[in-house]
Amino acid sequence: MKSRLNIYCKYLFASGLTAATLSCSNTKYLKQGQMLYTGGEVKIENDSLSKNEKKELKAALEENLVPKPNSTLLGLRPKLYFYNIAKEPKKDKGFNYWLKYKVGEKPVLLGDVDREFNRKIIENYSENKGYFNAKATYDTVSKNKKAQVIYTLRPGARYLVSHVKFQQDSSLVNKEIQNFAHKTLLKSGQPFDLDVIKNERERIDNGLKERGFYYFSPDNIIVQADSTVSKNHKVELNVKLKEDTPDLATKQFSIDKVIVFPNYNIQDVKRGKYSVPMNPDSLSKYAYDDIYVIDPQHKFKPKIFDRALYFKKGDLYNRSNHNLTLNRLISLGVFKFVKNEFIVSDSLKHQFDAYYLLTPRQIQSLRLEALGRTNSASYAGSELNLNWTHRNFFRGAEQFKAAVYGAFDFQMGGQENAQNLFRAGTNVQLSIPRIVAPFHFNSSSAFVPRTNITLGYEFQNRTQLYTLNNFNAAFGYVWKENARKEHELKVIDITLVSPANVTDEFYKQATTPAAQRVVAKQLIFGPTYSYTYTNTMLSKPTTIYYKGTLDLAGNITGLVTGANVKNDKEKKIFGIPFSQYAKIENDFRFYHKFTEKSSFASRFIGGIAYPYGNSEFIPFSKQFFAGGSNSIRAFRARTLGPGSFDPRTIKKGTLLDQAGDIKLELNAEYRANLYKFLNVAAFVDAGNVWLINEDSTRPGGKFSKEFLSEIAVGAGVGLRLDFSILILRLDLAMPLRVPYYEKGDRWAFDRINFGDSQWRKDNLVFNLAIGYPF
C-alpha cells in the first residue's frame, strides 16, 4: 500500500495536479466530437404547486435519470482524472489497473445518454404521482466539451382521490376483503399515487393470507381510476377482483394432515426413499396426536414438533403461523435446512396437507479453537479451546456443550507491575428448547424459549501473587419476544471463589483492605435478570443497543437468617460469609451511519451496586472498573478512581486494582474507512467509578454531589485492521481531564507537552485490542 501511495503522489506532482488543472484537463482526453456529460436537471413549470411540492418532485425525477454523471468532489472530478492519466493496463492487475479501474472512473459521455428515454421516465413518473397531463421536453446545453441536459416538465394539476369504492360481489374472498376494507391505505382527499395503490394491493393480499387464501396474489386485485366522474381534477378509485382471477385463489384452505420428515435428505429423495405426497394408508403408524412424524429410526421425540408446529388438523391456513412454524423449527438449532410444502389433498373441501422437510445438522461436533483475545483490564493473550457439542442429547433437540480451555494473558498498556495470568478450566451446558418449570409458559415468538443449566470451574493463577479456584453453577431461562428483544433470567446463579497459594509478595503489594479483598473467599448466589433490545441488525442509518442487568445476591437468605454485618450478625454457609447486595447496570449504545465508509458510535454505561445485610462491601469480582482498552482509554486499566482518589499516593510496586460501587461512563467515536481493511477512528471517553461507603485508605473515593468535577476525560486516535475474521485495534490516547488533580486544575491542556519524553511516557497510553470497544 505504501508503494502505491508513493507512486500516487508522484503522479500528482508530475501532472501538476491543482484545482484548476483538474477541472479542465479531463476534457482534453476526449476524442473529436465527444462531450463530457455533467448531468441532467429537471425544471418544473407549474404555478399551482407549492415550493416544497416542486422541490420534492424535482428531487425524485432527477434521481431517476440515467446514467449518472461522473462523481465530483468540491466541484472537481478526481476519479475521472485518475482514469485519464493512468495508462491502459496490459493485465487485470498491477498499479495501472488499480489506478485506472479501482481509483479511477470511466468518463460518462453525452452519447451515453438516451434523452428520449429519460423524457418518458419523467412523464411516466409524474403520471404515477397523479399528474395525469404531464408533458416533458428537453434541451442540451454544451460548452467547452461539456454538456448538460435540461428537462422541462409541465405537470399540470395534480389529481386527488375523490372517493374509494370496494366493489362487492357474492364470493367468499370478496366478503373477506370487505371485512378489512376500512383499513385501506387509499384515502379521499389524498393525491393519486401508484406506489400507495401497490401497497394497498399487498395489504389486501397479506390480509387474505391470514384468512386461509393461500393461493391468492396481489396481482388478482385491480384498482381502477376514473377521472371522468368528478370535476376539478378528482379521480375515483374502484378496488375489485380481476375477472380472470384463478378459481384456486378464491378458495379458503384449511389444514388436513401435518406430516414431518425430520431426517430429510435430498439424495435419499433421488434414490426413491421418500414419497411426497405420502400414501395415507402408510401414515397411521407414524401418528402422534394431530401430526405424523416420519422417523423410522426414532432419532427425535415427536413432542418437539408438537411444540414447534403452529398448524394443527382443521386449522385455517394462516401466513403468520406458517412463518412462525418455520422460524421455530430453525431456532431449535438442530436442523440445517427447513423446507415446507402444501399439497392439495381434497379439492372439494379445500384442504391441503402440510409437509415439513427437515434436514438435520451434524448431530455431534468436536472443534479445536486457537484464539487471540483481549479483555477490559487490557490483558491480551492466547487461548486454546476444545469444544464438544451434541445437538440432540436426549432426542428432544437439547444441546449439550462441553469445553476445556487454557489461556495465557499478559497486560499491555496497564499497570507497570501487572503480573501475567494463566487460566485453565472446563464448563458444561445443557440447553433445553422449552421452559422447564412447574408453571405453564406460553410463547408465540418465532424463537424457541430455552432452559439453560451450566456448570463450570476455572483455575486462575496470577504469577507470583495468588491462585484462585472459581466454581460456577446456574439454572435459568432465555426467551426472545422477537429478533430485537431478549430476556434472560437465571433463577439461581452460584459463584464460589476459593483462594490458594497467596504469596508474601501479594501482601507486600496489596497493602490496603480493598486490595486484599481480591483473595477473599466469596460465596455469591441469587437470581439475575437481563433485558436486551437491539435493532443493529437492520439496514438503517441509525440503530441502538440497550442491555439492562439486575443482580440480586443473598437477599432471601439474608432476610431469613437476619444477617446484619454492621450489628456483628454475619452469617456463613459452609464457613464462608455469603454476599448480599443489589446491583443494577445499564449499557446503552447509539450508532449512526453517515455513508458506507463513515459512521458515529457512542455508548453510555451507568451502574450501581449496593451492599447491605450480610455484606459491608461488594465482592471484588462484581465491582465496576474504569480505564483500559474497552473503557476510558487514556487511563491504564483499573488505575482510574474511585472518585478523586490519587493513585500517585500509593507506593510504587503496590498492587493497583481500583474498583468502585458506582460507575458512569460515556464514549463517542467517529469511524471511517481509508482503504479496504484499513479503518481509522477518533474518540473521546469520559467517566469514573465511585464508592458507596467511605474508605479511609482511598480518600475522595465516595460518591458525592461533587461527582461531576471528578469525571475523567480522555481522547485519542486509532487504527482498526479489519481482516473479516479478526479486527485488530490500535488506539493511542491521552488524558484531557484528570480527576485526582487539584480542583480548578484538572483540565490538562496547560500541561500538554509533546516534546517532553517523560510527559509522553506518563500520558500517552497505547492500547492493543481485538474487536471494537463497543
UniProtKB/TrEMBL annotation:
UniProt keyword terms in alphabetical order: Cell outer membrane, Membrane, Signal, Transmembrane
Pfam families, alphabetized: Omp85
Domain Bacterial surface antigen (D15) per the UniProt entry, residue ranges: 470-749
Highest classification ranks of the organism: Bacteria, Pseudomonadati, Bacteroidota, Flavobacteriia, Flavobacteriales
Protein name (database record): BamA/TamA family outer membrane protein
Keyword check for Transmembrane: yes
Endpoints of the signal sequence: 1-19
Keyword Transmembrane: yes
Predominant localisation class: membrane
